[in-house]
Amino acid sequence: MEFIVRILFSGMMAFIPNSNGTQLDVVLLKVDHSHSVSDGTGLPQHKPLILTRAGSCTGTCPTQDAAIASYVFGDKSTSVANDSLASAVSGGGAWVLTGADYTMRKASGAADLPALDFIEGVRTSIIPTTSDEREDFSWLAKASEFCPSCGFNDDVLDPQPPSSLVAARFRLNAGNVFTYSVARIGSDVTPVQFKRLDGSGSASSYSQAIATFIGADITVTGSSIDLVETNFDGSSGRTMTLTPNASGKVEIAVLNLPEIVPATADTTPGIGKHFERYYEVAQTVPSAATRLVPQPGAAPGAPSYSQVTWTSVHPTSELWSDLLNAIRLNPARSSYDITLCPPSLWP
Questions:
Q1: Is 37 among the domain residues?
Q2: What is the pLDDT of residues 255-302, one digit of tens each?
Q3: Residue 259 lies in a domain
Q4: Domain range holding 230?
């Protein structure tokens, strides 16, 4: 038996591949009301979550959790939110992530999972012009470009990372990693530029479309797969053993976002204030006022690019997700929030 596990990542998280590309650590940053940005406004709390949808689940598989439901369905009553969450994670479960590592593990006796691979070298411009180009991993915002002098604080990869910075980590050693969606800024694919929140100084010359969701597809030979939690102190945590649904799929969403309340209409995302938090991952942490954040539109002097509709590089037939649709985050739906909150690539 063969099936696909699709994992989709979005929100405040740093992607850190090892030197030979055989491992990818995804660090979910701790962002709560104690943090603020350089203009003095506080950051909304981001809640690290894993939601799964499958054929069946054994182990720790809660489908109703008021704390998660009220976050994912922030505009609904408690009872409706709980019912909506249960429907969204049908055959799976929902966890709040805290102080632990998360991995995918093959079932006992099953074939080894495929090696980790990245879709790269496909793009030809500062925006994707086809669906194939959109899959390029390089749409992930790169720290080496927006902050070339930052370096990287590898303490975040320690067995017990700084608790003030790291909420949780997800480690991938298998699967095909690609960009699932880029930021939707109007009806056409649009690059972003990086400059200070207060508008002072010059924008960075780094300018491109940026990923909002990163995907990983794992082809599994067997009847199930385990999602395993290991606490940072090394003790065992929870496990979900997931079997595929009738379509031969298991879907997993790894999120680190503010409360999800869909916009009532398509809007242009605002300045990415939340992005300032990423600089805490740097070895040399710049002052808050000098941190560059993503803002809609190409940087001055950026290369010209074609007019390409956003929907043409995000075909519904390829990207439809029952799980994301159920929580109102499918790429084709209206943006749930008007502030850019993309993941980033370090170092």
A1: yes
A2: 999 998 877 666 677 788 899 999 999 999 999 889 999 999 999 999
A3: yes
A4: 2-143+162-185+211-265+311-340
